[in-house]
Write a structure and sequence with these properties.
Elements: H1 26-34, H2 38-51, H3 56-68, H4 72-85, H5 91-104, H6 108-121, H7 126-138, H8 142-149, H9 160-172, H10 176-187, H11 193-205, H12 209-222, H13 229-239, H14 243-256, H15 261-273, H16 277-290, H17 295-302, E1 338-343, H18 348-363, E2 369-374, H19 390-395, H20 405-419, E3 424-427, H21 433-437, E4 444-448, E5 454-459, H22 467-479
Parallel strand pairs: 1-2, 2-3
Antiparallel strand pairs: 1-4, 4-5
Helix pairs in contact: 1-2, 2-3, 3-4, 3-5, 4-5, 5-6, 6-7, 7-8, 7-9, 8-9, 9-10, 9-11, 10-11, 11-12, 11-13, 12-13, 13-14, 14-15, 15-16, 16-17
């Protein structure tokens, strides 16, 4: 659930018995405060603090007013000053309010520290446990989020917010089946954005990116303002090849939460690849600030926005291994190296890499045999078990799955023509033998040397494919005798 579902009211302190003095009328300020007249309340509390800097009640309530006005840094300063002079019996309330101000100002690490300290004193406080678990989720500390929420699960069975936070933490920690129990509880209460968000998260964690996009888009239709929803949707869109749609989703998330780690990090990656270095630097710096423990973000920032491609779940044919034959195409005793480009016209990742591939083919024409190996459609339309990419829908690209080898060859010829690729053509059989042998779906590039062994491989796509790396690998192959 969004955090607003469980954040309780900030506790206000009543005036200690004393007559108004020095322009301070605490009771009047308190009346303004309770009436929602924050400017007047703030002025009244400030007068009390000016007349007596040690007044804990005035400082605490001034912090609450400032927080209600969105002036969180000022509120934090007032809570800290109040805590320094507060008696032990009211310190927990002040610490909670301080943690809440940190939380609302997106200083999540500081909020987690305050809530953690409080939770040790109040282990059965549901509101506190939910806030702490949410902080841990935002920091990427999924096991700690589970540790914060799980002890209250039996006592508060059926609590929607607890099901949501615990379900999300379990899914993100890779404990999908346990998380699914919480998903089912939420779905049992009717269709909600939060339920679809959890389903999308589970699909994403299991590698079902089409399923994730479907569920997350439905969640966004029901409520686009669920925290982190747009960030997850952006990541799922990236995996389907829709970098532009992903960038839009990340920007929506950052408009609501400037400190969402994944939105900052992933959008920085997209912008860096597109040459928007300064904006990418700012986003990456924010990602490091949000999660200083992220080695991935710190390494990218230190390397001048160079992002390493994530390791593939299926490494395919490793460098140095013998390249498997593709039908009648064998790789022993080659007169020149071969660049095998696997893909289909409905693969956005192949299309986004096509211009660079074409330039490489023109640069090394005659010295390297560039060849398109046409495989199964990445996002075919027209079938019950098919799913369409969002970017394909925008660009009007819709091909049904090839039913015969002849149809597959027609699709391959269409792909070469539309993308203007000066490649030779090999069409994988209907048994998808080459696709499986090279773990090539949805698209992949292999360089095979004259010795018939794989010299280099990479996934295609805006974030995975780097023409300069392929260029270096080709030159190394050509220099090898």
């Amino acid at each position: 659930m969004p955090a607003r579902w469980w954040i309780g009211a900030v506790a206000l302190l009543s005036a200690r018995a004393q007559a108004p003095a020095g322009g301070c009328d605490f009771e009047a300020a308190l009346r303004h405060h309770r009436a929602g007249e924050f400017q007047e309340a703030a002025a009244g509390y400030q007068a009390c603090v000016a007349s007596d800097p040690g007044r804990v009640d005035a400082r605490s309530n001034l912090g609450a007013v400032l927080a209600a006005m969105g002036r969180y840094e000022e509120a934090i300063a007032q809570y800290q000053a109040a805590l320094a002079a507060a008696p032990a019996e009211i310190a927990p309330n002040l610490r909670f309010n301080l943690g809440l101000a940190y939380y609302k100002s997106f200083r999540i690490r500081a909020a987690a520290d305050e809530f953690e300290a409080l939770s040790r004193m109040q282990p059965r406080n549901l509101n506190l446990a939910l806030l702490l678990a949410d902080c841990r989720l935002r920091l990427g500390e999924f096991d700690q989020a589970i540790a914060a929420a799980a002890p209250l699960d039996a006592e508060h069975a059926g609590e929607p917010a607890l099901d949501y936070v615990l379900g999300m933490a379990l899914i993100r920690a890779g404990r999908i089946q346990e998380g699914q129990v919480r998903v089912n509880r939420i779905l049992g209460r009717g269709e909600t954005a939060e339920g679809h968000f959890l389903l999308g998260s589970a699909a994403f964690a299991s590698g079902d990116y089409p399923g994730a996009v479907k569920e997350l888009e439905r969640a966004a239709e029901l409520n686009p303002d669920v925290p982190s929803l747009q960030s997850y949707l952006g990541q799922a869109l990236l995996f389907t090849g829709d970098a532009e749609g992903a960038a839009q989703a990340f920007r929506k998330e950052l408009a609501a939460d400037p400190n969402d780690f994944d939105a900052n990090f992933q959008l920085a990656q997209i912008l860096a690849r597109r040459g928007a270095a300064e904006e990418a630097r700012k986003l990456l710096a924010r990602a490091v600030e949000v999660r200083p423990g992220s080695e991935e973000a710190r390494a990218a920032l230190a390397a001048g926005f160079h992002f390493d491609a994530p390791p593939s779940k299926d490494p395919g044919v490793a460098a140095g291994a013998k390249a498997p034959a593709i039908g009648a195409l064998h790789f022993e005793g080659l007169p020149r190296p071969v660049a095998l480009v696997f893909g289909s016209y409905t693969c956005p990742k192949l299309r986004s890499s096509a211009a660079d591939l074409k330039r490489l083919a023109e640069r090394y024409g005659g010295r390297v045999d560039f060849r398109l190996v046409y495989i199964r459609e990445a996002h075919a339309g027209g079938g019950q078990n098919q799913w369409q990419s969002t970017i394909n829908q925008r660009e009007g690209i819709d091909l049904a799955p090839a039913r015969t080898a002849a149809e597959k060859k027609e699709h391959a010829a269409l792909c070469l023509r539309k993308l203007e690729l000066p490649f030779a053509l090999t069409v994988d059989g209907m048994d998808a033998a080459a696709e499986r042998a090279y773990a090539a779906w949805p698209s992949r590039l292999y360089l095979v040397g004259r010795d018939g062994k794989v010299a280099y491989e990479t996934r295609l796509g805006e974030l995975d494919f780097r023409a300069e790396d392929v260029d270096r690998a080709i030159r190394a192959m050509l220099d090898k005798r």
